[in-house]
Amino acid sequence: MSPISEKRFDIVFEAQARSSGKMRNDISLRFTRTNECYELATDEGAFHGGDGTAPPPLAPFAAALVGCVMTQIRAFATRLRMRVRAVNVQARLHWQAVQQAQEPYVSAPVGFQLDIELETDEPVEAQQRLIDAAKKGCFIEATLARPNIVTHRLRTPHGWRDI
Amino acid sequence: MSPISEKRFDIVFEAQARSSGKMRNDISLRFTRTNECYELATDEGAFHGGDGTAPPPLAPFAAALVGCVMTQIRAFATRLRMRVRAVNVQARLHWQAVQQAQEPYVSAPVGFQLDIELETDEPVEAQQRLIDAAKKGCFIEATLARPNIVTHRLRTPHGWRDI
User: Fold this and answer.
1) Cβ atoms within 10 Å of A139's Cβ, excluding its own
2) Is A7 left (phi over 0), alpha (psi -120 to 50) or beta?
3) Which of A22, A36, A83, B60 has a Cα at 20 to 30 A from A46?
4) Residues in B touching A135 (Cβ below 8 Å)
């Protein structure tokens, strides 16, 4: 028996971001694998003290989650030799925040529901296998399945401090 | 002693998304609190079989994470009566995928590092308190600290199936 071939690959995004305007942030991103760069921005509406020049951060977050799983569904359909004409997703992302007196609030996710519809003639069981594969392959889904992977450092006068 | 007042509020984003083009996804978002809507898209470069008409999903994900914590730093600086002239963040988001033979690959986060620099005259300890508050208040950071909050349903001929 020949051993099963195993390939590993790394995906790295680098970001450089700077606050601008009242609540706007300008974020330059680079995908190290292809050296492709993307300029994105976030802002807040008047409701949260911003100028509404760009979507608030939760909008690109929701788009990223939905877009990532949809992308993997299509990429893996090809690999699994399934014909999927189109993918439709409706999603609802729900968070809750709690504020004591005038303290900064503390937030938590309540739940994210993705309702997926495949335009395909494949049986439901095959569709489910495809979505299971997409969930495991989707970098954002995989990220949300694991706690505490974000780390931080603060620039201090004496160098970077882990916080 | 009077009880400490506690306020709770919900943040809900709704998305409707449809695949278009080879790997492009068009995503319409609505923030239910203000009824503001945002149109975002993702695509892939030629490397992953797309047309490069929009950033790949991990770009808005990275922008959302970085932008969210930067936004909360500024929002909470005001609340904590700290003066912060600007916020700069450098970030590196690293994932790894493993593929057996020609199977769909399985992905996992390796680590996300956020290097934060505040342009401020506040002492480092106050800056650290501010960032600690921003980490707890940031909806995306709070999301990444908790596993398994994404749920899925598949549209089948007999209705929605939990998957």
Assistant:
1) 24
2) beta
3) B60
4) 152
